[in-house]
Specification:
Blueprint (H helix, E strand, L loop, with lengths): L3 E13 L2 E10 L4 E7 L8 E4 L3 E4 L2 E11 L4 E6 L5 E3 L5 E5 L5 E4 L2 E4 H18 L4 H18 L4 H17 L12 H6 L2 H10 L2
Parallel strand pairs: 7-9
Antiparallel strand pairs: 1-2, 1-4, 2-3, 3-6, 4-5, 5-6, 8-9, 10-11
Helix pairs in contact: 1-2
Length: 207
């Protein structure tokens, strides 16, 4: 039996017929994968849990059943559009977008870091997964940043060095006026931030 390790990122208490259950949201940062678990007992955030795709375990103990699984294996990373926040995702979650002007690979501390993976599959995708579970943008973004950080550090570079290099390019991207935006872009982050300027540019540049 192949087991995959996840970290619990959120918990929701449920009362079902006078019986308490907990919905657990957990993510594997190494190979970006999301599971939603119906658990019979609670665990704390950041608890390491394991799953075979059907059951969820803490150690050798079964704590619940997996209700849904999402992973990045069938998600496309598209770099052919202008994206005001550098990264984004389609409404259906099947495509992650990165701004075409953002370098796809950055040289950081002597290593080549693929932004399509760090920002695309290890930030934007987890953020979309959380948003689709009705978490508000700030919390979804916070969880996604944590996943991105764990992945980046696993590559052997420091989070500070990574952020310093990324931020240089983020400022350049945001200063540009959008020329072409994907028609399927999920606008939830812009709407939450009430970024009217960005929303106006996106609507004008949709192709």
């Amino acid at each position: 039996m192949i087991m995959q390790e996840f970290e619990v990122v959120s918990r929701v208490d449920k009362d079902v017929s006078n019986r308490k259950e907990v919905l657990l949201m957990a993510i594997d940062f190494k190979e970006p994968t999301f599971i939603k678990v119906r658990a019979k007992e609670d665990v704390t955030d950041h608890t390491k849990v394991y799953s075979d795709g059907k059951k969820c375990y803490v150690g050798d103990k079964i704590i619940g059943e997996v209700l849904s699984v999402k992973n990045g294996s069938d998600v496309a990373v598209n770099t052919k559009y202008d994206i005001k926040y550098t990264g984004g995702y389609s409404l259906d979650g099947k495509t992650v977008y990165l701004d075409e002007h953002f370098p796809p690979v950055l040289k950081i501390q002597g290593k080549e870091i693929d932004i399509r993976k760090t920002i695309g599959l290890h930030h934007e995708l987890p953020e979309k997964w959380m948003a689709d579970e009705d978490y508000e943008y700030p919390y979804a973004h916070e969880v996604a940043t944590g996943i991105e950080k764990k992945y980046v550090e696993s590559l052997g570079v420091t989070w500070k060095a990574y952020c310093d290099e990324v931020d240089k390019n983020l400022r350049q991207v945001y200063s540009r006026t959008l020329e072409k935006s994907p028609p399927s872009l999920d606008l939830a982050p812009y709407l939450y931030c009430r970024d009217r300027e960005a929303l106006g540019e996106i609507r004008k540049s949709e192709s």
